[in-house]
Amino acid sequence: MKRTRLLHALCSGLLVSLLAAGGGADASGLQVAPTTLSLKPAQNADGLWLSNTGESVVHAQVRVYHWTQDSQGDQLTESRGLVISPPMLQLAVGDRQLVRVIRVGAPPTGAGAVEDAYRLAIDELPVDAQGKPGLQFVLHYSVPVFIQPAGAAAAPPQLQWSLLRDGDHVMLQVSNHGGSHAQLAGLSYVDTMGRRTDITPGLLGYVLAGATMRWMLKPSAAIFAAGGTLEAMVNGEKATQNLSLADRSH
């Protein structure tokens, strides 16, 4: 089994590559919906719609990776835990295709079972652009797929937040002691004087069940020195946490 490091940008959901040529730019039309899947214990399959909103034929490939997190961050391992049908497809202009995502085997079971996680790497395949001027945009999507455990529902995420100093920089550490993932987005920090500092307007990343993740923050350590409140969207709901560089709280 081939094991690869997952780049942070890939885990953020979408990458755009450029195939160099001279001239202008040719926009791709590959679209994917929905951007996240969650399979219930009794649910053996779900689906994604791939569509072509561009002006030329799109060729795409879908691959499956088991997704874990460790001290080095996100990790992907090629997996047969999900079957994709079809794994390769061609979309004419204006077409769309349902891609089935089929679970192989039973969902997580047993006392304390937690949610399992996969990533679908959906790659637009470059076409032969010989004689065609301009840049060709090639899209890469990374779609999370979560498998809920059998029996009782997985415990919701239980997050422990910490701010760690690294010279003049600050690292945010988040540990998830719950049984399901936490999606973190829209982070900002409000100090004791009421001054707000935006950290990231969009998606920061995920913390899987039982995992710990760290992110280096752009604001300097001085912003956090006097303490304040970290605000974030966790799985789409607003959460607040009082934190300073000296704090380590639940």
Would you kindly provide a written description of the structure presented here, covering whatever features stand out?
Residues 1-27 form the signal peptide. This is P pilus assembly protein chaperone PapD-like protein. The relative contact order is 0.18. Strands 1, 2, 3, 5, 7, 8, 10, 12 and 13 form a nine-stranded mixed sheet that branches. This protein has a four-stranded antiparallel sheet with strand order 4-6-11-9, with no helix packed on it. A four-stranded antiparallel sheet has the order 18-15-14-21, with no helix packed on it. The chain is built from one helix and 21 strands. The chain has two domains: 3-147, Sandwich (Immunoglobulin-like); 159-249, Sandwich (Immunoglobulin-like), CATH 2.60.40. It has one helix at residues 8-11, and strands at 3-5, 14-19, 25-26, 30-33, 37-39, 45-52, 58-70, 73-78, 82-85, 88-91, 96-103, 116-125, 135-147, 159-166, 169-176, 182-191, 196-207, 212-217, 228-234, 237-243, 248-249. The protein is mostly beta strands. Strand 19 and strand 20 (237-243) form a beta hairpin.
